[in-house]
Specification:
heterodimer, A: 260 residues, alpha+beta, Thrombin, subunit H, 3 domains, six-stranded antiparallel barrel, six-stranded antiparallel beta barrel, 12 strands, 35% helix, 28% strand, globular, B: 85 residues, mainly alpha
Chain lengths: 260, 85
Amino acid sequence: MKTTFRRRYNGGEKNFSKRTLYVIAALGAGIAVFYFLRSPILNAISPVWRGQNSITRGISNFLGLIKDKDSLARDNLALREKLASYELLLAENRALSASRDELLGKFGREESTAGIAAGVLVHPPETPYDNLIIDAGEVEGVKMDSRVSLPEGGALGTISEVHEHQSKVALYSGSSIETGGLLERGNIPVTLVGAGGGTFKLTLPRDVIVEAGDKILLPGIRSELVGVVREVSLEPTDSEKHVTVGAVANIHGIRFVNVH
Amino acid sequence: MRVGFTIIALILTLALPYWVYLPFIFAGVIVFPLYIEAVFLALLIDTLYGGGEYGKMLFGFPFGIVAALLVIFAAPLREHLRFNA
């Protein structure tokens, strides 16, 4: 009869202590190295991200070419119609923006610069958090806590780290980040709590009217759009409404931002 | 094989979403004895992608600390697992 015996476990506690010390020493050394070499590492990795973005765009353009002619023609028509309607919206938006800026100018509150345009190197889900890494840093004039928005408008977040040529943007939708806002319907002050993945959670008293599609604005003279209500849930026994708010744009596909 | 695995994990960290590279690194901790490279990869993730809100509590390196704990506690677990029936 064959019997298998497990190898005797000798010196378990001593080995465990040695391994723990070894791992802790490696962790300590690693933290020291990575803390001081943050900027050089980001500088070294940036070309890799740029190359990866170019390759991804090239592949999706190529895949677009191998579709059949009819489907391409249909897509082309649909996109032209969408473009036409967006151009109208953009023209209207520009007119509104210009009249707002003129009004703010009369009160001495116009923005002095158009902001710093930056490309997005990395966005979720490559980053496990709701962060963006952009290719503008101290050299380009980016400062800590600067406001970041989409080129066409819509608030995204603030600058959380600045390096020589790169910066990190902490999105307002980051987990547990609280942002003060204003529900456009009724001008009600609200507190948005980031839930990650480009969404926010919000609770409102039961009797406050809110519907899907309502806009949430940042408080302040410019009232930038920060989110749009997606879903409102209310149980009969609840005293509060639970509202899910989506960010202004799909954070998984942002390509360009403005830093103010 | 261990070096190749680490190189692949590094490429995945730079190119693919977190739900690809994090389980891959975790698998390395389980498969390889004392996979200290996981700690360095996790520290790289913290450096590149930022600590976020949780980073403010764990010295800015939450993934690194969690990876170190996994490596420490994976070792006795591997030794106590019986692989032969």
